[in-house]
Sequence to fold (288 residues):
Amino acid sequence: MIIRRFDNWPFDGFSGGVSELDRLRQDLGRLFNGLPRANGWDSPAGVYPLMNVSQDSENVYVRSEIPGMSLDQLDVSVTGRSLTVTGERAIPDENSNVRYHRKEREAGKIRRQLTLPTDVDNDRVQAKYQHGILMVVLPKSEKAKPKKIAISG
Amino acid sequence: MTTQTQDIQVRDKREVKSDAEQTIPGRVFSPNVDIFEDDQALTIVADMPGVPSENVSIDLRNDVLSLSGVPSVSVPEKEDYVLREYATGKYFRQFTLSEVIDQEKIEAKLNNGVLRVTLPKVGPAKPRKIEITEG
Fold:
């Protein structure tokens, strides 16, 4: 017969109860923060808007779904390796005699900072907003680009 | 102290599980909507980021309004993901309408990923007051 035991299980007496719970919470936190989620998605930063970042040999691409913005409400800036997106999403009021049945869309401030995976050429960063998606193209700095090394035989 | 505008909170996209299997595989999400009405019309505003106007379809039959949209942007294959916080996929949502809608006058506008559908009600929808006489 195989008896499988958890560490410190069973805990002794009531005094251990709280710390046991803490430990469990820590373990769970580590599990969810450290590993990619089971479905292949990274755990979100918990800050709106969510971002998808990809790269090829030339550029880093940052995409974000922020529907219903106008360009003057959205600011993108790059400092060093840090990309900042700020703005405010406004949902204009309808005339006063409408009755709302559902109100799921949110208005409010947008503030998100992201650390880029490589150094980028800050002067050549371009941002585009189309169909409610913000896309920022950040050309990699020369020293961050992959170099092909010739092998001599 | 209260601030006038608050930060927008992150919410995961809600995935739609449909009964029928899809012919084109991919994930389907339920767009966030605002729905409101006045005496003249019912209006539905839906967030569908990434969807161009030619990929939106609005269908009303048997009092069921279906909104669907397919995003046009996809990540080219040569790009590798570094961070993936949101999933992309089609948008789909259905509503059963309790009002009689003037189908000819339905209007839809798409602006920066926000779809706005105006469904005018048939006839003057004035509340009719019924007089009760005693006797």
Chain B has a mean pLDDT of 85. Chain B touches chain A at residues 5-10, 12, 32-39, 43, 45, 47-52, 71-73, 75-76, 78-87, 111-114 (CB under 8 Å). Chain B is about 0% helix and 40% strand.
